[in-house]
Amino acid sequence: MLRIQTGGAVRGTASAGSRLMSIGSVLSLLREEFPEVTISKIRFLEAEGLVEPQRTPSGYRKFSPVDVERLAQVLRMQRDHYLPLKVIKEHLDALERGEQVQLPSPGGPRELLDGAPEVAAEGPTATRLGREELLAGAEVSEGDLAEWEAYGLIAELPDGGYDAEAVTVAKLVADLGRFGLEPRHLRAMKAAADREAGLIGNVVAPLRRHRNPQTRAHAEATTRELAGISVRLHAALVQTALRSGSH
Predict the structure, then answer these.
(1) Which of 104, 113, 118, 190 has the fewest CB atoms found within 10 Å of its own CB?
(2) Percent of the chain having pLDDT more than 70?
């Protein structure tokens, strides 16, 4: 795991003489914890104002250890807490002011970014979004969202609203659209995801039915862990298939 300090003022931990790194070196460091990260992702986060690397006179990016630390914070909040970038930036700005930041942890206890886990309150802790919040968070149009819903890529929760992960799905579908991949092309991905979710659900079902609350809580942690492994396996299989020229 990438060892990144998570408390205090995020940008205030590097000394003036800290070694600067190229974007390739930063990618290598981040991939220890985030195997799916790419140079394009780092550049995107820079464009969104989440990190501000220095530039050489010839225009090359140079990242400090504090920049790498901040990128890891952003990626971790996206992966573990499903937060949109606007909210992540607000959290990081609050940390820089020395404030304590509380993050939602879907299915488990809320965590304090610079402290131990807090005891969870009764009821669900996952963030739920309204339609307007989803559109704003993903920065997509009503027409786009309606089309993605028609193809089953995004769906409302049974009792209304959207899971916070819908923002991530919407952004990724929009990103793929810029490469010419339309919603109809993504139905196979959705079907594969549904099958993986069903497989994970079967594995943790006995834990979820257990009478012991701690065992049921462990089921949710196991679900998240299995989901993370599944995502990494999927990415590795795709990369292997592309390198082998089988597609």
Answers:
(1) 118
(2) 82
